[in-house]
Structure formats: structure tokens, C-alpha cells
Amino acid sequence: MRFDYHTRYRQGFALLRHRSDWLSYGLLAAALLALPMLASTYLVGELGYVFILCIASMGLMALTGFTGQVSLGHASFVAIGAYAHAWLMAQGVPFAASLPLAALISAAAGLVVGIPAIRVSGLYLAMVTLAFAIVVEQIIGMWRGVTGGYMGMMVETPQLLGLSLGSPRVFYYVCLFVAALVLLALANLMRSGIGRAFTGVRDSEAAAYALGIEVNRVKVGAFGLSAGITGLAGGLMAHHIGYLTPDAFTLLLSLDLVLMVVIGGIGSLRGAILGAVLISLLPNAVAALKSLLPAAMARQTGLEIFVAGLVLALFVLFEPTGLNGRWLKLRALIESFPLYRRDMFRRQKTYMKSERNR
Amino acid sequence: MTMNRRQMLATGAAALAMGSGLRAARAAGVSADAINIGMHLDLSGPTASSMPMLRNATELAFGQANAAGGVHGRQINMIVEDNAGQPQQAVRAVQKLIRSDEVFALHNSFGSGPNAATMGLATGAGVVVFAPWAASAVMHQVSGNSPLLFTTVQNYNTTTQRALERVIPEWGVERPGVIYMEGPYGDLIRAGVNPALESLGMSTAEEAAYRPGEIDFSSQVARMRAAGVDLIIAGTIIRETVAVMAEVKKLDWDVKVLCAIPGRSTMVAQLGGADTEGLYGIGGWQLHGAETSNAEAQAFISAYQEAYGTMPDENAANAYSYTNWFLSALRGAGEDLTSDSFVAAARASGHNDFTTYTEQTFVDNHAMPEMVSIDRVVDGTWEQQIAPF
Known about the structure:
The structure holds 2 protein chains of 2 kinds.
Chain A: H1 19-38, H2 41-65, H3 74-90, H4 95-117, H5 123-142, H6 144-147, E1 153-154, E2 159-160, E3 163-164, H7 168-190, H8 193-203, H9 205-210, H10 215-241, E4 243-244, H11 251-264, H12 269-290, H13 295-298, H14 303-318, H15 322-335
Antiparallel strand pairs in A: 1-4, 2-3
Helix pairs in contact in A: 1-7, 2-7, 2-10, 2-11, 2-12, 3-4, 3-5, 3-10, 4-10, 8-10, 11-12, 12-14, 12-15
Chain B: H1 2-18, E1 34-41, H2 51-67, E2 75-82, H3 87-100, E3 105-107, H4 112-124, E4 128-130, H5 136-142, E5 149-150, H6 156-171, E6 176-181, H7 184-199, E7 206-210, H8 218-226, E8 231-235, H9 238-250, E9 256-259, H10 266-272, E10 280-283, H11 295-308, H12 314-332, H13 339-348, E11 350-351, E12 360-363, E13 366-368, E14 373-378, E15 381-386
Helix pairs in contact in B: 2-12, 3-4, 6-7, 9-10, 12-13
């Protein structure tokens, strides 16, 4: 058991509150930094991709988890980021400038989609975003001059200060750096006034409005922020794929992103990361599983979809708070070991339906 | 072994850095008694249901070669990965195949997007890419005309053009109309239709697009009819071809319908039943049913049925045929198998079996000549109307 004794107000919302947190996150950072020296090129490449998905997942979390707005069309922001980045690089814009610019372009598109979000919410917002994704896919296919149409476009090898970022190990560090930057930015944002406004809008629009929060602005702003971060992931994704075609950014990717956020645990950045790691490594797990199954089952196609669906169903049934919720329970169990109460996490009576999201 | 692998990777990386011209002959995935061959298929995406045919037929051909003692004493070790029909997953699959399994070649991999995304990765690492199931011209363009890429799938644009330039004057067509899919496939079909009509001094009387997944073609066919079209060129695949024909039959309209290579499938004739009677199709390879008289085809069908318990379709036959071509190139490369010796052997190889119309060779690394036939559905099976030309 641990009891906090705060002597300053700011200690209450420090990012890392305890010395043990500093130690464990420091060890994690050191391990991630040292990994490319030790692991195989294949593993390093895989982890680079996992980081890209983590960024995209955090982008969607900023929208769905923090302000409670659903989006079934986030693949389109990945696409906009990817194509914008690839096009800018083809025009001779250096990597370091092109990536943030692509994020800004994606954020601008997010603002446009965010405007209807003022008027619609819930299922209707999901439909608007879905429609947007279909429109974007069409535009990419038609706008041959910029996107290369359905035939696709080549992505140039990234360069930074004359150094090629093409090798898997170097690209791993680029992805890790951007992912860490996004994580820090979002974690800080969530303890600032804007973050509180996000949570306020999510939990009760009326209450937030009464407290002087500009609900409409916050909603549209969240869309822009989320789209910008997702676009950043798109820019990196462009380098992962190397040759962009519209079929990289279909509804399947949008649904994968939603799965990551839901399975990870709505409303937490840790959840976004855990969800992205789980969903992106699921195909590897299924491949490993296949070698253990009898040949007749292992040869079935579509096993991956079945397993993904099963995992989602199990989480919704048994762990609605996602991987993050499970982690918090596990940690509480370890920290309070002999004194753990079974009902510690039993849901208390809630008075507002929005409190479900907490 | 580990040291050896490291060295090989290091030399590969160094050679890449120095420029492709100086790349050392690399023979990853080739050991004294085995050759690793990679294959990535859409095992969990939109076309997953047709993948077992490709995988089984490829496995069958490799299995037969292995049973006969392998290729110069080396057993073929086939590794299948899932690309989910998505480029980003395909990149992961190919990264695994190259970096972890260290394959010598990628063979019979499926999907235009997945193949386009992984082409540079594979050829850049010195891995041979043989018979990708994707738009061949685009693949060569993406790979920067790499000598390591060998394509066998007919180009839909050139074959469509060739067929139209023959049948339009022969049938006396004056007002051709096109139904095409929005997307890469439709782009290819129109890239064949437009130059063909241009060379004949004509233009399309009507064009109608459909979106992938659409099942109702009443508006497209109605537009064709309103424009007084006398030949519908159907840039459609399986289900869409059947739907177009069903609509034509419903209107009781006597018009010629000609579908491109993907529509000339046994499945179209089977699914359509009475609706597809009289449909014309551009054929790119020989079709064989259970009652075929070709001995080679009979041997393939019975071997497939014995191994997998189902009747192989034309995709299986093509996958089997491409794999045998690949095997003959591997044999031709001799004991000392490297990517260089393979490329030389493949370029010198020829291929002719129960699926091809004539002896094919690689011209600029693409299987040529691309002969086409004009077939017609009569009593539920495709019958050749115009012999391959």
C-alpha cells in the first residue's frame, strides 16, 4: 500500500508521481532505445510499424476517448497524412518539414469534418465520418495528378540532414521519437485546461456549457487535433508502405483503429498504446497459433478475422474498461497484495450515464 | 550458420549502399539441401475465399518436385504468409519472409496493392519475384524494371485492345459501350478499349461505371440500351458479369456482351446458368473441366483432387502452371543457384503446358506472346469461337 503525502499542489497532477514510476518508465525507455542494437532487423521493422499504429491509435483516442466523439473514418486521415507527406516530399520539401506540414493538412481536413460534429453526435456522427472516409477514398482514386490514382504513387526514401532514414533501424528511432513526442504532448494536454474541457464535454455537454466551456469549439478542435495526430501517423505509414495505393486506407484500417481504442480502454493513453500493440501483433499471434493447430484448421482462411472478433467480444463482455482497466486492477492487486478486496473495482452507483466513460 | 547469415546480410547491405550495379550475387534462402520460397496471400481479407486454390496448387507443384528428388537435390520449402489484402500488412509479411525466413524468391503472391507495396522491398533486397498476381505493367514500373521481377499475368489493357481490334470489324460493331469498375481494374480496361477504338476511328457510344461491390446493374444496362449500343464491353469480374447478363436477359435485349479476361471464368458460366448463355469472353488461357481430353490437365486435376478433395479451378491451374515454369527456371540455374544464375536461366526458359495457348518466353521479363481467344458460353461451358491469335 502506498499513501501519497503531497506538500505542493502540483504534485497532485505530476506525470510521474512516484520514484518507482520514474524507474519503470526510465527502464522502458532505455530498453526501447537499446533494442535495435540487440534484436533482429525483422523485429525492429515490426516494432517500427507498431509505433506508427500507436500514434494513430492515440490520435483516435484524443477524439473518442477524451471528447466522446465516435469516428469510423479515421483511416481517411491516415490517408490524407500519407498522401500529403508523399506529395510534399516529391515536390522537394525536406522530411523534417514535410511531416509536420502533412499533419497540418490532415488537421485542416479534420476541422472540416468536425463542423458537422457540432450538430450530430453518436451514431449519426459515426455515419458522417464513414461517409467522409468513402469520399476521401474516391478523391484519392480520381485525383491522378497528385495521388497517382488507383495505380498508386512511389514514396521517396526519407532523408534527414543528408542521412538516409531508409534502414529499418534508423526508421525505428524516427517512429519511436514521434510516438514519444505525441504521447508526451497528449499527456500534458490532458492535464491542462484544454484537456479538462475535453473531459467536461465528454461527460456532460450541458454542465460543460454552464461552466463556460465553448462546447462547439472544443468539439471541432478535438477533431482537428485528432486528425492532425492521425495524419502524422499517416506520414510515417507512407514510408512503411513505400508505394501508396488507395487500398491501404480502407474501412478495415478504420475499424482496426476503433478496435485498438476500445480494447485498449476508452479514455486512457496507456490503453491506446496497449490496444495498438495487441491489435498489430494479433496477426503474428495467429500465425504462431496456426502451427499448433491441426492442419485442417490451420489451413482455413479468415482465422485472423475470427480471432480479432473473438478478442473484441471477450473484452466487451468481461473487461469493458479494456486492457488499461485490467492493468490498473493488476497493479492494485500487486501493490496492496494481502489486503486486496474483491469488490475494490466494483462499479459504484452512478448518477449520470456519461459517467460510464470514466 | 548464424555468422554466415550475418555476413551475408552485411554484404547485402553494403552492396545496396554502394549501388545496385555492384550487388554481389546473393543466394539467401539456398542451402545445400533446401530452397526457401515465400508466398503472401490474402488469407484474411476480401478475397480470402479464393486463396486456398492458389496455395494448394502451388504446394502441389512444389510437392511433386520434392517427391521427384527436389531441384538439384534441394527440397523446396514453401512459406505462406497472410497479407490481408492490405499493403501495410503485405509489407510486414514480406519483411518477415526476407529478414526472418531469408527466402530466395517470392512466388505466386496475390494482390495488386500488396505486390506494388512490397516490390521495391523485395527486389531491393535481391529477392527474385516470380509471377506476382497483379497488374504486370504496373509491377515492372514500380520495381524500376528490376531484372529480378518476372511477370506472367496477362496485361488486361493490351489483351483487351488486341481482342477488340479483331472482333469489332469482324462483327461489324458500330456503337460499342463500356461498363467498367471504378478503380485500378477499370482504368486498365479503359486503357485497352480507348486505343483500340481510336485505331479503328471510333469512340464509345456510352460509358457507365460501377463501384466495387455493386450488385444491381439495371441503370448501367439501361444507359447502354438508351444509347443504342450494339456491343457491351464488360470490364467486369465474376459476379458483376453475371449481373450484367441477367439484366440484359431481363430486358430481352439482343445485344452482344463481351467480357474481359477476368470475366471469362468457368465460375461465370456456372453461376449464371441460363442468364449467361451467349456471353462472349476474351480468353487468356485454356480452360479445362472435369471431362477434359488433355492428358496433362487430367493428371493435374486428379492429383489435385487426390490431395485436397475438391475440383481445382482455373486459378489453381494457372498457379500450378506458373509454379512449374518457376521450377524449370530453378532447374536451369544449375547447382550453383544465385539470383544471377536464376535470372539468366529464367530468361532462357520457355513454357508451354495445358493452360497456355502457345510456347511462352520472357520478353523484358514479361511472359510473351499474350495470345487471346474469343470464347462464348454455350450450354453452360465456354466454347472457343475464334482460335487464339
